[in-house]
Task: inverse folding
């Protein structure tokens, strides 16, 4: 039995070299493949934070799971019998040094790994956050209707966008070009959550509504056009984040302002137009049996 299978079968308890240690499972989305990848990792709690270190036992290259979370910040954590989504944010500067020192005090082996390599071992903060479900994990049926699900997703999008705009405004005037990991990861998590939400609507929700409510055809067409316009702004943001080390904070703020104006108008219109119809659809939707009964 693999460590992952043993962990899941025994509520987080494993034997062998990992017995008695602080162990979690981290599921990331492949940077290139887009598929889920799960790895067992040691963890440390410090300053009220849940931390993992991309040590790779002191190897010269970062482990693949770390590259994955840079591309897809929303990751899945399994800790004991609990499972939850987080946003993975590498610590920077003085904060990274302070947290790494705290890690080494609890688990000195990480200091030995650092001595084996010239690369600075990343310390990743796993930030508990109310996030939309990752595309590789089905949503939990926590709401009664599709209207409630829509409002849940919209509430997250609005809150996340307000958060990243506040972080962008907090960048000191005159600071050299470049964005920190925290802003980059939070902004990328928002962009990917937005993509997941709009893709689900375009592929499933809107076609179903078009069949059951033909009077909404013009409304759905307009919403689709808004998705494409917002998608263009999102692509500009994503391209900027890909060059985060050299990105212009003023341009980021301008792009976020455009996104906020267009997205708020879209969400308001969608709620006014679709909530009455969606309120009659249970969540998750009930699919008819194959025999039609």
Result:
């Amino acid at each position: 039995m693999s460590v992952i299978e043993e962990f899941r079968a025994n509520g987080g308890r494993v034997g062998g070299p990992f017995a008695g240690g602080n162990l979690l499972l981290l599921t990331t989305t492949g940077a290139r493949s887009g598929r889920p990848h799960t790895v067992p990792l040691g963890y440390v709690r410090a300053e009220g934070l849940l931390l993992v270190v991309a040590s790779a036992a002191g190897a010269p290259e970062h482990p693949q799971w770390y590259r994955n979370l840079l591309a897809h910040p929303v990751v899945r954590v399994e800790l004991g019998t609990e499972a939850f989504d987080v946003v993975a944010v590498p610590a920077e500067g003085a904060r990274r040094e302070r947290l790494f020192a705290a890690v080494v005090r609890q688990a000195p082996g990480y200091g030995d790994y650092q001595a084996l390599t010239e690369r600075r071992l990343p310390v990743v903060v796993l930030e508990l956050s109310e996030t939309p479900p990752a595309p590789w994990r089905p949503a939990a049926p926590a709401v009664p209707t599709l209207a409630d699900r829509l409002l849940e997703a919209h509430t997250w999008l609005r809150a996340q966008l307000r958060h990243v705009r506040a972080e962008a405004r907090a960048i000191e005037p005159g600071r050299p070009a470049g964005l920190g990991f925290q802003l980059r990861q939070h902004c990328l998590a928002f962009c990917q959550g937005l993509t997941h939400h709009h893709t689900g609507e375009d592929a499933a929700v809107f076609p179903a509504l078009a069949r059951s409510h033909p009077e909404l055809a013009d409304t759905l067409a307009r919403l689709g056009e808004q998705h494409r316009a917002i998608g263009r702004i999102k692509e500009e943001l994503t391209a900027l984040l890909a060059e985060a080390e050299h990105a212009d904070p003023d341009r980021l703020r301008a792009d976020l302002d455009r996104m906020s104006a267009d997205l708020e108008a879209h969400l308001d219109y969608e709620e006014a137009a679709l909530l009455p119809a969606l309120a009659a659809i249970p969540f998750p939707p009930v699919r008819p049996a194959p025999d039609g009964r």
